[in-house]
Amino acid sequence: MLAELPFTTAEAIAAEYKPGVRLTSKAAIRTLRSKSVVSDGVSIRPRREHGRVAGGQHIYSALNLDAVRLYRRGDEAAARKIAERAQALERGDGAARLAKALADEPEPVVGSGWMVFRTSNYDGVLEKALAELSQATEHEREAMGDAVDLGRATFARVVKVHSDVVELRLDEGGATVPLPAHELPERMAPAVGSVVALRWEDLGAGMTLLKAAPAFETGARSGPAYPYDRPLLGEEPPTVVEGILASAPTIRRPRAIPIRGVS
Amino acid sequence: MEIGTPVARYLGEDDRDALASFRCSTGAWFEDEVESFVATQLLRRHAARRLHTRHTVIGLEAESGELVAVGAHEEDLLHDGDSPFTSTFLVVAAVAVEAQGGTLPDVEPLDEGRLVSVGRYLLEVLMSDADAAAREPVFRAVVAKDNVRSLALCTRVGLTRVLADRDPRFEQRLGVVRQG
Question: Is residue A244 part of a domain?
Answer without folding.
Answer: no
